[in-house]
Every structure is written in C-alpha cells, then in structure tokens.
Amino acid sequence: MVADLARLGIGRGTTLLVHASLSRTGLEADIVREALRRALGPEGTLVVPAFTPENSDTSPHYRARVAGLTPGQAAAVRAEMPAFDPLRTPCPGMGRLAESVRTAPGAVRSAHPQTSFAAVGRDAEALMAGHPLHSHLGEESPLGALYRADARVLMINVDFSVCTAFHLAEYRTGAPERTYRCVVRGADGPQWTEYRDAELDDSDFAAVGGSFPWQLAHIGQLGGTFARLFSLRDAVDHAVLWMTEKRR
User: Fold this and answer.
1) What pLDDT, on a 0 to 100 scale, did the predictor assign at position 189?
2) pTM, to two decimals
3) Cys-Cys link to 239, which of 82, 83, 169, 206 (CB 3.0-4.6 A)?
4) Measured distance CA(126)–CA(142) in Å, rounded
C-alpha cells in the first residue's frame, strides 16, 4: 500500500487531506492510516474531515431524522442530542478512516462543533488551530489553512461529489448566508448556540469535479481500490472559476 501511494505521487513531507469510503473495499482503516503515515513520513501531516451534523437541528441529518414525527417527538429527539466535545464526539458519517485518524495517538481536532477536521503529523496543531463558528469551511478554517499550506487531496473510493475543498470556493464567490444552530458543551452543561455563516451547497460538486482538468490529477490504485490525487489549490481555483460562471 505504501508503494501504491508513492506511485500516485504522495511523497514524504506532504500535507494530505483524505476522503475515503472503505466499505466493500476489504481495506482496514487502521492499516490505511498507518500506510498513509509511513508514506508521508514524520515531516508530513495527514488530515481528515471529522464533521458532526448529528448535534444540529438545522442540518439535513436532523430533518431526515425527525421527518414524519409529531412536534413532541421531534422535541424529544432534539433534547437528547449530545453536545459536541472535540475530544470525544465521533464522526460516524465521515467513514472508518476518519474515525481512525480522529482517535489515533497524538491526533489534534479543530474546535468547530459542526465541521471540525482531525489531523496527525508535524503540522497538525498549526493546521487545526482556530476554526471559529462563523467559518465552517472558509478562510479561517483548517480548509483555508490547507490551501495556504499547498496541501494535496487524496480521494479513495469516492468521487468529487464529496470534495470538501470545493466549499472554500463558495466563500470566495460570495455564497449567501444562513442561520445554523447546534448544541455544545457549556459551563453548566449542554447549551445551544446560533450563528450565521455561508450557505453550503454540495449539490453541484459532481459537475464541478466533472470539468476538473484531467491532467491535474493522478489516478491509480490503493490496495486494489480506485484513488485520485490532486492539488487542493487547483481544485479550489477551478471551483471558483466554475461557480463564477455557472452559479447564479
């Protein structure tokens, strides 16, 4: 697997954001994580999204969960939603590899209660620092830091529809704002917090990725599974141009 990563173009010292779906691949999350760390070396940094829509009542996850319930039943679901704890809250929707990285020894997680990232490696603390509520995936988030660090993106068994990097382009092209709510840890227990940020919309990400110049990506295999590697900056810059032209 380390040899596969090298053939894709992942070298020591790389800062790497990984999206992966390991279901039905036969790949074990911890083995993939350690192969990635060996390929990156001690001077590299491995980053994954560790998003948690489960603690928000303004997320599609919540709306799907309460669909068909009575107001009382929906209120009961909301009352039982756990407060975000960066040290303990899992990110089940992000896949087994993300959980493996989040729980790895020495892992660092950013502070956002909805769109945190987790990282291990040399620059983990610097990349995860900050992450204010009003910047889910904007310039002040780890995604903005990854752009400035000239990170690479590795996609394992997934397509561009889940390419988080494209969200940074939404901020750069003036996406409208909306209100978000989620439950966090307060001094006296769980408390709800409300804030405004860009209205994130990934419904056209497959189309954005479909026009991504093929020569800017390296395509190969990882343990027999399809993998694609490309520059995060290239992806964001391409998405800015696409959204400027296509979105209205």
Assistant:
1) 85
2) 0.95
3) 169
4) 9
